[in-house]
């Protein structure tokens, strides 16, 4: 039995207060990879909404609960946009703190949505410190991504959709940064479809949460260097790690060159469809490891290839592999898995 901080009942309730524009994101099959890997690959696209990321699910829950008043958050760009959008819709006074090095397009969007934007020198961790200072000085709500349950349970509504859209899933792969999406989706999957494997994927240049998961203790890093800026944290939150340890079956790291090489592959046509995020469980023998678990147990090169293929929109979306034609469930040993995407 799961004993995470999350609650499936609250997650279902969260879905009822989220603006529909963030719900029921499309699930696409990625035809380009299926012949190479010998299995079905599906991507749940969390960029098909006004803020181009899944964070709006969380900020809708937060803004609904607040009703009025002021709120502040630190952001690498995505949470800030989402909180600004939800805050504007409900008349909240929103302040976002971000690093000067954050993507200009995201900073411009935060301003355009009406939020007050404060920039700091340093990285996201410095922005977190400044946001906490502002909250303390002015007595306003501080939104802490991944620590605040609303951020996890809002993201967890993705899991509710996955279970509905792909009832025969074998494996779900989830981008890993601070852990809100990974613990949220993971909680729902393990609660409602416990036979499905949950595998998290993180950039090698920002490995803190994966290293923490592997060592079962908080591991911090001196720096984070990745183009997947939305998952570039250095200081895992202990409570989030505790949750992740319960819901994740594996966590893998991918190199930057795999992410950049995969950009081109991610742009290839996909077809919408009801294919599973994962594969049919019924075709697998009892106790037999799933396709991605097998790959994870292989050499580092295969782990790298499989991991880079897991995540479309590395800091945004959820993807998976599924059992292929003839019941084959493992990745071919010569697979050249280069499907990754960063928004």
Distance between the termini: 35 Å
How many separate helices?
13
Helix content class: 40-55%
When the domains are counted, the total is 2
Compressed to H and E, one letter per element, the order equals HEHEHEHEHEHEHEHEHHEHEHHE
Biggest sheet layout = 7 strands, mixed
In the predicted model, the low-confidence regions spanning at least 5 consecutive residues are: 270-315, 324-343
Structural class: alpha/beta
Strand order of the largest sheet: 9-8-7-11-2-1-10
Mean pLDDT: 81
Gross geometry: globular
Mind telling me the C-alpha Rg? 19 Å
Characteristic terms for this protein:
41% helix; Rossmann fold; 2 domains; 343 residues; seven-stranded mixed sheet; alpha/beta
Q: What is the strand and helix layout of this fold?
A:
Elements: H1 8-17, E1 27-29, H2 34-37, E2 39-44, H3 55-66, E3 70-74, H4 78-90, E4 93-99, H5 104-112, E5 116-120, H6 124-138, E6 141-143, H7 149-165, E7 171-175, H8 180-192, E8 197-203, H9 208-215, H10 238-247, E9 250-254, H11 256-266, E10 271-272, H12 291-296, H13 300-310, E11 318-323
Parallel strand pairs: 3-4, 3-6, 4-5, 7-8, 8-9
Antiparallel strand pairs: 1-2, 1-10, 2-11, 7-11
Helix pairs in contact: 1-7, 3-4, 3-7, 4-5, 7-8, 8-10
Structure description:
The structure is a single chain. The chain has 13 helices and eleven strands. Helix content is 41%, strand content 16%. The C terminus is likely disordered. With 343 residues, it is α/β, with parallel strands linked by helices. The protein has two domains: 215 residues, Rossmann fold; 89 residues, 3-Layer(aba) Sandwich (Rossmann fold). Helix 1 crosses helix 7, helix 3 runs parallel beside helix 4 and helix 8 packs parallel to helix 10. The protein is globular, with a radius of gyration of 19 Å. A seven-stranded mixed sheet has the order 9-8-7-11-2-1-10, with helices on both faces. Strands 5-4-3-6 form a four-stranded parallel sheet, with helices on both faces.
